[in-house]
């Protein structure tokens, strides 16, 4: 494979390319020029690693040379006291308004291909 | 031309995890995915818990490591069935790796199956293996800030073990801060404070394992028997 240490982004990027090529074929497209990804901050994915593997794995496929656009979604917390919803603060998890402890809402685990730009 | 896709990228792993889930049910395996940093004490905990329960429950183990079979040898030395997976640089186990082991190891049945993941607090949390339970091992010397830094790992846990509590007086571990972070990201998982070295807390942990996981095996076999009688 030429890549000795595999970050998990390798397997994940293979999935991205497989899905993208499959969708492009369904649409009768011959080339993929852009792939728009939505990635939650809790999904343990590093954009740069996906991009690096993408450039390697997409070689000689319909996805070669496609531009990857990453849309990041933050992890969200809800305040246990005032009920306010907020993005993960830089430090700790407490509510930025009233200072009470917050709880994870579940947002931030997203990881999907939103759309693509193709040439037919 | 724009194409709307809206496809989850982890679907391929998710589908295989469902296959594993069905296989575990069929073989009557209660699968526990054991995750934590390198050196947190994952293998030591498994060895201790299996030592305490092996007269009552069957065990089998899958050991995941980047390289080496050091841990698998320790478990083999106990006379417990173990298979080593070397990921060769890969940072986690995925559903496909587990699937091929279960498929080959026909003797893996009617037991608790411990799947010890690669030591890592990041990636393993993103890969569903089809397990019945995710156990996260933290240890005192790693520091009290781990739930704040590795949110995803602690969020997905069904049970959390804090190991090496005998070291608390020596390393300045701030317990309230650890628990505060933990309760923000995971309000439901029970936490067991233990020390593999002194043996403290191991009985309660083994008790939980017996209640939850062994019960799962027994209730399934009861179910199979009842279905057979119809």
Calculate the terminal CA-CA distance of chain A, rounded to whole Å.
Answer: 31 Å
Integer average pLDDT of chain A: 92
Distance, first to last CA of chain B: 58 Å
- Helix count from the secondary structure assignment of chain A: 2
* Fraction in helix of chain A: 10-25%
Tell me how many strands of chain B there are. 8
Strand order of the largest sheet of chain A: 2-1-6
CATH architecture of chain B: 3-Layer(aba) Sandwich
What does the secondary structure layout of this molecule look like, with pairings?
The complex is a heterodimer of chains A (120) and B (230).
Chain A: H1 9-26, E1 31-40, H2 47-57, E2 67-73, E3 76-79, E4 85-87, E5 102-104, E6 111-119
Parallel strand pairs in A: 1-2
Antiparallel strand pairs in A: 1-6, 3-4, 3-5
Helix pairs in contact in A: 1-2
Chain B: E1 2-8, H1 11-27, E2 29-36, H2 42-53, E3 59-65, H3 70-77, E4 81-86, H4 95-104, E5 111-116, E6 133-139, H5 146-149, H6 151-156, E7 159-163, H7 168-171, H8 175-185, E8 191-193, H9 202-229
Parallel strand pairs in B: 2-5, 2-6, 3-4, 3-5, 6-7, 7-8
Helix pairs in contact in B: 1-4, 2-9
